[in-house]
Amino acid sequence: MNREQMVEELSKIVGKENVLFSETDLLLYGYDASLFKGKPDCIVFPGSTEDVSQIVKFCHHERIPVIARGSGTNLSGGTIPTRGGVILHFSRMNKIVEIDIENQRAVVEPGLFTLALKNQLARYGYVYQPDPASEKVSTFGGNFAENSGGPHCLKYGVTTNHVLGAEIVLPDGEVVQVGGKAPDNPGYDLTGLLVGSEGTLGIATKLILRIMPKSEAVKTMLAIYNSLEDAGRTVSAIIADGILPATLEILDKLTIKAVEESVHAGFPLDAEAVLLIEIDGLKDGMERLAEQIMEVCRKNNAREVKSAKTEAERTQLWAGRKGAFGAISRLRPNYLVCDGTVPRTKLPEVLTRVMEVSKKYGLPIANVFHAGDGNLHPLILFDERDVEELRKVHLAGSEIMKLCAEAGGTISGEHGIGTEKMKEMFYIFSNQDISAMKKVKKAFDPEEIFNPGKIFPEVQA
Ligand SMILES: Cc1cc2nc3c(=O)[nH]c(=O)nc-3n(C[C@H](O)[C@H](O)[C@H](O)COP(=O)(O)OP(=O)(O)OC[C@H]3O[C@@H](n4cnc5c(N)ncnc54)[C@H](O)[C@@H]3O)c2cc1C
Question: How far is the CA of 87 from the centre of ligand 1 (A)?
Answer without folding.
Answer: 15
